[in-house]
Structure formats: C-alpha cells, structure tokens
Write a structure and sequence with these properties.
Length: 208
C-alpha cells in the first residue's frame, strides 16, 4: 500500500471516529440510577448500545454473546489485514488487560472481525495470539457480523479497489461489556493503557 493510500485511509478512519464521537453518546440506564457512574470516562447521555449476537470463534465453534461475555470484556471491531489502526488498538487493549492480570482482575479482550471473507477462524487465531493469550477472535457469516456490528453501532465498508488486498473502513472504538449487564462504556482510541486499566478495574469491582 502506497504512502498516499495510507494517509487517505487514516483520514477516513479519523473522520469515522470523529463522527462516531458525535452520535455515540450513550448512558446505561438502570432502575435506581447508574451504578457505574464513578467508572465512566466522560459525560454521556441518551440512547442504548449493545445486544445479543451469534458468531464463530477462532476455534471454529458457534458462540453466543452470553457465552463470550462470561466475565468483564473489552470488545473491539476490526480486521486482521488492517495496516495500522487495528494492531495499535488491539495492543493497547492487551496491555491494559495484562496490567489487570497482575492485580488479579481478569478481563477478556475480544476482537470481532468486520472482514469475514478473509478472517477465517484460523487466521484470527494466529492474529490474536500476537497480542494476548486470552484474546478471543470472532468471525462469522456476513449476516452474523452485520448484526453484531449493528448492535454496537459499528459502521464498516470494504473498499473495492483491490480484490485481494482491499482495506475496510470501520468505526474504531472499544466497548466495555459486563456479564448480565451488557454494555457500560465506550473507549476512545486516544485512551492510554494505564487509564483504560484503571477504568476496567473500576467496572469489574463495581459489578461484583
């Protein structure tokens, strides 16, 4: 991929993230108030996000969101052929999870592909192993991936300039999700691993 092409892709992704920050203003509403308010990264309001999904794990098994989110989890939508944004985000997430491992707090990092045509379970297994031994890669049919992305309001579209080495524009947030609770907060790309680890620890302790 040429340098100009990389700059163009980066510009598109920055625009997507910027737009996402405008419409992705969400607050978890619970009876009696928000029990996780002290953990949130910023002021958010209105709307809802997250929901059930069925995908295929990197081991080839069909799994539901209930099976995947069996502990505090950090979800990210990306693709393994992503040249720069996805590996940076996946590494940041893995670093935050590693920091929590040292504190005895287990958080599951999850990588959901928006490129199911190329991201087979085998490809995902090799990819996630580069970041954390507990990172779970998920793929599926076009319909399964679309439904999961829609649940989290993830926008994505493949460029058709190259049938083999095409890129995919996508929303680049991470999502903190808790079992029996669901989505609780969104993580922006510029959040440092240390700050993310602190926030994940707060949510995990508040959910106990």
């Amino acid at each position: 991929m040429g340098l100009d092409r990389r700059f163009a892709l980066a510009a598109v992704l920055v625009a997507v993230v910027g737009l996402g920050g405008t419409w992705l203003a969400i607050r978890l509403t619970q009876p009696g108030g928000d029990g996780f308010a002290q953990c949130r990264g910023g002021a958010v309001a209105g709307g809802s996000l997250g929901g059930p999904f069925t995908l295929v794990s990197e081991t080839g098994e069909t799994v539901t969101s209930e099976e995947v989110i069996d502990r505090p989890s950090l979800l990210y939508f990306g693709y393994t052929y992503c040249p720069d944004v996805c590996p940076i985000d996946a590494m940041r997430n893995a670093q935050a999870v590693e920091m929590l491992d040292a504190e005895g707090i287990e958080v599951k990092p999850v990588f959901i592909s928006v490129d199911p045509a190329r991201d087979t379970p085998e490809v995902l297994a090799q990819y996630t192993a580069n970041f954390h031994d507990r990172m779970l890669g998920l793929t599926g049919s076009e319909e399964q991936v679309r439904e999961a992305a829609q649940a989290y309001r993830v926008l994505y579209s493949a460029n058709d300039d190259d049938p083999e080495f095409y890129t995919v524009n996508h929303t680049a947030f991470s999502y903190i999700v808790l079992p029996e609770v669901g989505f609780v907060d969104v993580v922006r790309r510029d959040e440092a691993p240390e700050a993310l680890a602190d926030r994940l620890a707060c949510f995990a302790r508040a959910a106990e």
